[in-house]
Amino acid sequence: MGVLYAYVGGVWVPVTGGGDAGGGGGGGTGTDEVWIGADDPIVANPTIELWVDTDDAGGGGGGGTTGPIAYVHNQDTVAASWLIEHNLGFFPNVTVIDSSGATVEGDVAHVDNNTLTIQFSGAFTGVAYLS
């Protein structure tokens, strides 16, 4: 079993609990799904993304990841070049969504294990999901 992280107040925190925590969807085993609330969020939001660190068995040993495994960058300033300092310690996959909800392609350049840039053909605001 791994550790599920949620992005809360600008910080990645481990989520405790499991399975059908909020009722709703039925049939939860406690090992394959976690949600809070009355309805399964995947049904209402099919593009929702959750990350789980399957190498971290809850502290110490095992050689698992000890930090966050994903990062969300909010680009609030209109720009065609985004500089993202994610501090993940690896070269993450990147998905960009513009302010209208459309997926946008850009040229990703990994500066180092903790920083990347994305170049776009036009300037816009949006969100970059790194994992």
What's a concise summary of this model?
This protein is mostly beta strands and 131 residues long. 3% of the residues lie in helices and 44% in strands.
How would you describe what is shown here?
- The protein has one helix at residues 41-44; strands at 3-8, 11-15, 51-53, 71-85, 94-98, 103-104, 107-112, 115-130.
- β1 (3-8) and β2 (11-15) form a beta hairpin.
- The protein is 3% helix and 44% strand.
- It is globular.
- It contains 1 helix and 8 strands.
- The strands form 2 sheets. Strands 4, 5, 6, 7 and 8 form a 5-stranded antiparallel sheet that branches. A 3-stranded antiparallel sheet has the order 2-1-3, with no helix packed on it.
- The chain folds into 2 domains: 3-53, no CATH class; 71-130, no CATH class.
- The chain is mainly β.
- The model is unreliable at 18-33 and 57-65 (pLDDT under 50).
